[in-house]
Protein backbone atom coordinates (compact mmCIF):
# COMPACT_ATOMS: atom_id res chain seq x y z
CA UNK A 1 0.00 0.00 0.00
CA UNK A 2 2.81 2.45 0.87
CA UNK A 3 4.54 1.72 -2.44
CA UNK A 4 1.31 2.36 -4.36
CA UNK A 5 0.76 5.62 -2.45
CA UNK A 6 4.29 6.71 -3.30
CA UNK A 7 3.70 5.87 -6.96
CA UNK A 8 0.59 8.04 -6.82
CA UNK A 9 2.75 11.00 -5.81
CA UNK A 10 5.00 10.40 -8.82
CA UNK A 11 2.24 10.23 -11.45
CA UNK A 12 3.11 12.30 -14.52
CA UNK A 13 6.68 13.00 -13.40
CA UNK A 14 9.88 11.95 -15.12
CA UNK A 15 11.38 9.66 -12.52
CA UNK A 16 13.76 6.82 -11.92
CA UNK A 17 12.38 4.05 -9.75
CA UNK A 18 15.17 2.10 -8.11
CA UNK A 19 14.24 -1.40 -7.01
CA UNK A 20 17.11 -2.31 -4.73
CA UNK A 21 17.78 -5.73 -3.21
CA UNK A 22 16.78 -7.40 -6.47
CA UNK A 23 18.48 -10.55 -5.20
CA UNK A 24 15.71 -10.91 -2.57
CA UNK A 25 11.96 -11.62 -2.88
CA UNK A 26 9.95 -8.51 -3.72
CA UNK A 27 6.82 -6.95 -2.28
CA UNK A 28 6.12 -4.89 -5.38
CA UNK A 29 7.58 -5.96 -8.69
CA UNK A 30 8.72 -4.28 -11.86
CA UNK A 31 5.43 -5.10 -13.63
CA UNK A 32 3.49 -3.39 -10.81
CA UNK A 33 5.64 -0.28 -11.11
CA UNK A 34 5.25 -0.25 -14.91
CA UNK A 35 1.47 -0.38 -14.46
CA UNK A 36 1.45 2.41 -11.87
CA UNK A 37 4.13 4.59 -13.48
CA UNK A 38 4.23 3.90 -17.23
CA UNK A 39 6.60 6.84 -17.90
CA UNK A 40 9.15 5.91 -15.23
CA UNK A 41 12.60 4.52 -15.86
CA UNK A 42 12.78 1.37 -13.71
CA UNK A 43 16.13 0.00 -12.58
CA UNK A 44 16.77 -3.10 -10.51
CA UNK A 45 19.89 -3.24 -8.38
CA UNK A 46 21.50 -5.33 -5.71
CA UNK A 47 24.21 -3.47 -3.86
CA UNK A 48 25.36 -6.63 -2.10
CA UNK A 49 25.71 -8.49 -5.39
CA UNK A 50 26.90 -5.47 -7.39
CA UNK A 51 24.06 -5.88 -9.89
CA UNK A 52 22.81 -2.89 -11.88
CA UNK A 53 25.19 -0.29 -10.48
CA UNK A 54 26.78 0.55 -13.83
CA UNK A 55 23.35 1.07 -15.41
CA UNK A 56 22.27 3.24 -12.47
CA UNK A 57 25.37 5.41 -12.80
CA UNK A 58 24.94 5.66 -16.57
CA UNK A 59 21.26 6.58 -16.21
CA UNK A 60 21.95 9.26 -13.59
CA UNK A 61 24.66 10.82 -15.74
CA UNK A 62 22.36 10.79 -18.79
CA UNK A 63 19.50 12.37 -16.87
CA UNK A 64 21.63 15.06 -15.26
CA UNK A 65 23.65 15.98 -18.35
CA UNK A 66 20.60 15.61 -20.60
CA UNK A 67 18.62 18.16 -18.63
CA UNK A 68 15.96 15.86 -17.16
CA UNK A 69 17.00 16.91 -13.64
CA UNK A 70 17.19 20.67 -13.44
CA UNK A 71 15.90 21.78 -10.07
CA UNK A 72 15.98 20.63 -6.48
CA UNK A 73 12.23 20.01 -6.76
CA UNK A 74 12.93 17.39 -9.43
CA UNK A 75 14.56 15.07 -6.87
CA UNK A 76 12.62 12.99 -4.35
CA UNK A 77 14.35 11.09 -1.58
CA UNK A 78 12.20 8.92 0.67
CA UNK A 79 14.72 8.09 3.40
CA UNK A 80 15.31 10.77 6.05
CA UNK A 81 18.92 9.65 6.52
CA UNK A 82 19.55 10.15 2.79
CA UNK A 83 17.89 13.58 2.88
CA UNK A 84 20.11 14.64 5.78
CA UNK A 85 23.22 13.35 4.02
CA UNK A 86 22.38 15.19 0.78
CA UNK A 87 21.83 18.41 2.73
CA UNK A 88 25.13 17.96 4.53
CA UNK A 89 26.91 17.24 1.22
CA UNK A 90 25.39 20.40 -0.25
CA UNK A 91 26.60 22.46 2.71
CA UNK A 92 30.11 21.01 2.38
CA UNK A 93 30.19 21.81 -1.35
CA UNK A 94 29.05 25.39 -0.72
CA UNK A 95 31.79 25.77 1.87
CA UNK A 96 34.36 24.41 -0.61
CA UNK A 97 33.16 26.87 -3.25
CA UNK A 98 33.35 29.80 -0.82
CA UNK A 99 36.90 28.84 0.14
CA UNK A 100 37.95 28.48 -3.50
CA UNK A 101 36.44 31.87 -4.38
CA UNK A 102 38.09 33.57 -1.40
CA UNK A 103 41.56 32.58 -2.51
CA UNK A 104 42.31 30.50 0.58
CA UNK A 105 44.46 27.40 0.30
CA UNK A 106 42.84 24.79 -1.92
CA UNK A 107 43.62 22.15 0.70
CA UNK A 108 40.77 23.55 2.78
CA UNK A 109 38.37 23.39 -0.16
CA UNK A 110 39.52 19.84 -0.92
CA UNK A 111 38.76 18.83 2.66
CA UNK A 112 35.15 19.99 2.32
CA UNK A 113 34.78 18.30 -1.06
CA UNK A 114 36.02 15.06 0.50
CA UNK A 115 33.44 15.46 3.27
CA UNK A 116 30.73 15.94 0.63
CA UNK A 117 31.89 12.81 -1.21
CA UNK A 118 31.82 10.85 2.04
CA UNK A 119 28.23 11.96 2.69
CA UNK A 120 27.15 10.80 -0.76
CA UNK A 121 29.21 7.64 -0.32
CA UNK A 122 27.16 6.79 2.76
CA UNK A 123 24.06 6.79 0.55
CA UNK A 124 25.62 4.68 -2.19
CA UNK A 125 27.44 2.35 0.19
CA UNK A 126 30.91 3.41 -0.91
CA UNK A 127 31.62 4.94 2.51
CA UNK A 128 30.91 2.85 5.56
CA UNK A 129 31.87 3.67 9.11
CA UNK A 130 30.79 2.31 12.49
CA UNK A 131 28.47 5.25 13.21
CA UNK A 132 26.69 4.76 9.91
CA UNK A 133 26.19 1.06 10.56
CA UNK A 134 24.77 1.86 14.00
CA UNK A 135 22.31 4.34 12.46
CA UNK A 136 21.21 1.87 9.79
CA UNK A 137 20.77 -1.08 12.13
CA UNK A 138 18.97 1.03 14.72
CA UNK A 139 16.11 1.22 12.20
CA UNK A 140 15.63 -2.55 12.16
CA UNK A 141 14.80 -5.17 14.78
CA UNK A 142 17.41 -7.89 14.48
CA UNK A 143 17.63 -11.17 16.33
CA UNK A 144 13.98 -11.50 17.27
Briefly say what this structure is.
The chain is mostly helical and 144 residues long.
Explain this structure to me?
- With 144 residues, this protein is mainly alpha-helical.
- The chain has two domains: 2-72, no CATH class; 80-137, no CATH class.
- Helix content is 54%, strand content 6%.
- The chain has helices spanning 2-9, 30-36, 53-65, 80-102, 106-124, 130-137; strands spanning 16-19, 41-44.
- A two-stranded parallel sheet has the order 1-2.
- Helix 4 packs antiparallel against helix 5 (106-124).
- It is globular.
**Helix and strand run:** HEHEHHHH
Number of DSSP-assigned strands = 2
Biggest beta sheet attributes: 2 strands, parallel
Estimated share of beta-strand residues: 5-15%
Total separate domains: 2
Principal-axes shape call: globular
Multimeric organization: single chain
H/I helix tally: 6
Low-confidence stretches: none
Task: Name the helicity range.
Answer: 40-55%
Structural class call reads: mainly alpha
Strand order of the largest sheet: 1-2
Mean pLDDT across all amino acids:
78
Nearest-angstrom radius of gyration? 18 Å
For the termini, the CA-CA separation is 25 Å
Amino acid sequence: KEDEDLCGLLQGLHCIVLLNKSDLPTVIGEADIERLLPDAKILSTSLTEGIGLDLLEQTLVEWITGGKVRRREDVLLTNIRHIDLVRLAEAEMKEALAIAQSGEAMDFAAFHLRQACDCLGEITGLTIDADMLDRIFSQFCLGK
